[in-house]
Amino acid sequence: MPYIHIKITDEGVTNAQKQSLIKGATQLMVDVLGKNPQTTFVVIDEVPTDNWGIGFEQVTALRLRQAQ
């Protein structure tokens, strides 16, 4: 019973995109490991950019700088 945990920043990911992630991750388990899709669990956590850091900075600050 695979459990796949996907963490992404909360930056306007659509429901359709989340469905594609779930479908793709499940299909990967089927293709690579021969797992049953009916018992494969996928959880998507959306993390606020203030709570996600790269290097020494919050993603919020990085995105603001990139927008300038």
From TrEMBL:
The active site is at residue 2. GO terms for molecular function: isomerase activity. Keywords: Isomerase. Residues 2-59 form the 4-oxalocrotonate tautomerase-like domain. It comes from the Bacteria. Its EC number is 5.3.2.-. The keyword ATP-binding does not apply. Belongs to the 4-oxalocrotonate tautomerase family. This is Tautomerase. The lineage of its organism: Bacteria, Pseudomonadati, Pseudomonadota, Gammaproteobacteria, Alteromonadales.
